[in-house]
Specification:
The protein has 425 residues and is of the alpha/beta class. It folds into 3 domains: 151 residues, Acyl-CoA dehydrogenase/oxidase, N-terminal domain (Butyryl-Coa Dehydrogenase, subunit A, domain 1, Orthogonal Bundle), CATH 1.10.540.10; 131 residues, Butyryl-CoA Dehydrogenase, subunit A, domain 2, CATH 2.40.110.10; 127 residues, Butyryl-CoA Dehydrogenase, subunit A, domain 3 (Up-down Bundle), CATH 1.20.140.10. Strands 1, 2, 3, 4, 5, 6, 7, 8 and 9 form a 9-stranded mixed β-sheet that branches. Strand 3 and strand 4 form a beta hairpin. Helix 3 packs antiparallel against helix 8, helix 7 runs parallel beside helix 9 and helix 9 runs antiparallel to helix 11. The longest helix has 27 residues. The chain is globular, with a radius of gyration of 22 Å. It starts with a strand and ends in a 5-residue tail after the last helix.
């Protein structure tokens, strides 16, 4: 039966421990080179991937797609690239990037390796939830590790049978006599399963949310019981180390697209964690989830990257075959580029958060960009003709990856429900 006294990883018989405050900001400087120890210097975090990083990610994308195995090489590239520090505040060694910068970076990564892009996006999403809802102690312990690339974060929210809206969770969290929690349940479609160093696990807690007082240093929710369309009252988030003995990843799931993303199952069995592992107040996870869309970070950025990759493939084909001389070909490529630029524009608008309701724009951006990506990839596949009807041509991977975006949470059907739900009230 696993237990942990802090978010610090537990291995073998090593007793749990809490890292001292000195480990946090002061141990991270902008000079020196990365060392082999857990505490290492971190250079200024980049806002966009370098050409070398993109080249390395591109090189491992095809192999991971063929094998369907977790793309550990891509994760290693991401750890070393500095991109994992994107949304970590500067005060904790990160770049402090806004949603526009995040979406731009994710798009560029997706254009060469969509699996790496979704791992990066999900990791940044978890980091943002920690920044917004974590206690000062959680910030001191977790954020520097995320900024330095030592920890890859993943979200474990989905379950088989819970529905896309996460309202019927079977994963439960019970209070223990010592004030901690005991979690039991199983998660599915967890990106970076088996690769992540910390998981944000969503569970149905047993205590009525109205009876819980927010913990000192943790923001309170205006209403924990209001139906937000996503999640349910009485749900709570927990941060659990990837090598906690009560957390068991399973990467046997074989996807059609995003095959290198290590999307699989995660079980928590008699998983004991202290109350300090709780993220946010007890029972208010639904309100935390509802605020995610307001951040402007959007999976539409992944779709735009895939669409751009398909468009680039069409241009490469046209140049190789000398097709630019034909007006019909040029105009066809312009039509494709217009779709890509339109999707990119709505993703950028979501990131800027300038709309009257930024959350709605974020939802629309995923719907628009994912649909555009599927159309563009299909049109490019037709344009390529027999050249694209070869198993090894990347256009086939682009098509499977583009379809995956629509199925990622919130799924496109759920996005439509979240947009239209207020109309029926």
């Amino acid at each position: 039966m696993g237990s942990a006294d802090s978010l610090t990883a537990v291995r073998g018989s090593t007793p749990p421990r809490t890292l001292p405050d000195a480990y946090a900001v002061g141990s991270y400087t902008t000079s020196g080179s990365p060392g082999a120890s857990r505490v290492r210097s971190v250079p200024p975090a980049p806002l966009v991937p370098s050409s070398d990083v993109l080249s390395r990610l591109s090189a491992c994308a095809e192999a991971a797609d063929r094998s369907g195995e977790p793309d550990r090489e891509a994760v290693a590239v991401l750890r070393d690239s500095g991109l994992l520090a994107l949304v970590v505040p500067r005060s904790h060694g990160g770049a402090g990037a806004d949603a526009v910068a995040l979406n731009t970076c994710v798009e560029q990564v997706a254009a060469v390796n969509a699996s790496a892009a979704i791992m990066l996006f999900q990791r940044c999403a978890v980091t943002s939830r920690i920044v917004e809802n974590g206690t000062p102690a959680q910030h001191r312990e977790v954020l520097p590790k995320l900024a330095g690339g030592q920890w890859l974060a993943a979200s474990a929210w989905s379950e088989s049978g819970a529905g896309a809206d996460k309202k019927n969770l079977s994963t439960v969290a019970h209070r223990t006599p010592d004030g901690g929690w005991l979690l039991d349940g199983a998660k599915s479609f967890t990106t970076s399963a088996g690769l992540a160093d910390v998981y944000l696990v969503l569970a149905q807690s047993q205590e009525p949310p109205e009876s819980q007082e927010p913990r000192a240093g943790s923001p309170a929710s205006a209403s924990s019981s209001q139906d937000t369309g996503y999640g349910a009252a009485g749900q709570t988030f927990f941060l659990i180390p990837g090598d906690h003995p009560g957390l068991l990843p399973d990467t046997s799931l074989r996807l059609t697209g995003m095959r290198g993303s290590a999307t699989g199952f995660v079980s928590v069995r008699e998983c004991r964690v202290p109350d300090s592992a709780r993220l946010g107040a007890t029972g208010v996870a639904a309100s935390i989830i509802a605020r995610v869309r307001d951040s402007g970070a959007t999976l539409g950025a992944v779709a735009v990257g895939v669409a751009q990759a398909a468009l680039d493939a069409a241009h490469a084909h046209a140049a190789r075959r000398g097709l630019y001389a034909h007006q019909a070909v040029r105009h066809r490529l312009v039509d494709l580029a217009t779709q890509v630029e339109s999707a990119r524009a709505v993703v950028e608008r979501a990131g800027r958060r300038t709309a009257a309701d930024p959350g709605l724009t974020t939802l629309h951006s995923k719907l628009a960009a994912s649909a555009a990506a599927e159309r563009v990839v299909a049109d490019v596949a037709q344009f390529l003709g027999s050249a694209g009807y070869v198993e090894t041509h990347p256009i086939n991977r682009f098509g499977r990856d583009a379809r995956a975006v629509a199925l990622m949470g919130p799924t496109n059907d759920l996005c439509k429900e979240l947009v239209s739900l207020p109309w029926n009230r």
